[in-house]
Q: What sequence folds into this?
């Protein structure tokens, strides 16, 4: 879909939305999207830091992304995904982990939420 050779982030996102034991698949899916968005934005901004300071860039981007996401006061998935997304943008580059990851997460979260609506109606609480 969308020309992605290996849409691994879509599959992972669907699984995260359908994780057992969470109180709300809707909240989990929205948190996933928010966390990834924050992480990608912070990762993209961190690319402005010179490559000579790669370790500092990685550590500070991950920390800042997680702190911004944690400030929303929502589920743990948000800061976790923010930190992971910032790292992926810096490690894999924005072409692979920026917009491509965001689109995969949208598709995966949407798929997970549709499956939850069809099969887990009683568990869908916002």
A:
């Amino acid at each position: 879909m969308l020309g992605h050779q290996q849409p691994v982030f879509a599959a992972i996102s669907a699984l995260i939305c359908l994780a057992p034991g969470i109180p709300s698949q809707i909240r989990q899916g929205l948190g996933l999207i928010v966390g990834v968005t924050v992480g990608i934005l912070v990762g993209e901004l961190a690319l402005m830091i010179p490559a000579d300071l790669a370790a500092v860039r990685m550590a500070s981007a991950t920390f800042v992304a997680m702190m911004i996401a944690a400030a929303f006061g929502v589920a743990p998935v948000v800061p976790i995904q923010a930190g992971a997304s910032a790292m992926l943008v810096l490690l894999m580059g924005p072409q692979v982990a920026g917009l491509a990851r965001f689109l995969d997460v949208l598709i995966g979260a949407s798929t997970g939420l549709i499956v939850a609506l069809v099969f887990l109606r009683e568990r869908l609480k916002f």
Observations:
- Residues 8-120 form one domain.
- The chain has one domain: 8-120.
- The two ends are 29 Å apart (CA to CA).
- The CA atoms of residues 17 and 29 lie 5 Å apart.
